[in-house]
Amino acid sequence: MVEQGCSTLPTNEDGRILDRLAGLEKVISPEQIRQVLRDTGRVNGRACPLTHEVMFWIVLAMGLLTHIPIRQVFRHARRMRIGEAAPARSSLCVARQRLGAEPVRRLLCSTRRKLPRWN
Q: What is the pLDDT of residues 13-60, one digit of tens each?
């Protein structure tokens, strides 16, 4: 049991980032992402490290990690792939533009709900 007013977040920045990303994964499932991508016609026809699914997660993570550059967001969001090099910033920007806003809009519409008030 956690005392009221006490933080469960780790004290270092990497721990806080991983906690935020883990929370995101609890709210949005990979299947929801895949379904939205299918519904919006964003299905990759080629092998590319920056697939629409990867970029979708990066875009969502960017909303949580607004204080760090996109390449660092990529590194944190892809934490399970040790040793993977972060692509150039320009590649990430182009992949983000290729994804577009419609999948994010659709996901928002399908997942939004009223949150309980926290006092």
A: 555 666 777 878 888 888 999 999 999 999 877 777 888 998 999 999
Structure tokens at 3: 């005392």
What gap in Å lies between CA 119 and CA 63, rounded to an integer?
24
Q: Where are the alpha helices (DSSP H) in the chain?
A: 13-27, 30-39, 52-64, 70-77, 89-99, 102-111
Q: Which of 59, 90, 33 minimizes the C-alpha distance to 44?
A: 33
Greater model confidence, 54 or 6: 54
Instruction: Report yes or no on 60 lying in a domain.
Output: yes
Mean model confidence pLDDT for the chain:
79
In a domain, 4, yes or no: no
Residue 17 tokens read as: 């980032």
Query: Do the Cβ atoms of 8 and 66 come closer than 8 Å?
Result: no
What's the domain range around 57? 13-109
The number of distinct structural domains making up the chain is: 1
Q: Is 27 exposed, middle or buried (0-12, 13-18, 19+ CB in 10 A)?
A: exposed
Asked if residue 57 belongs to a domain, the reply is yes
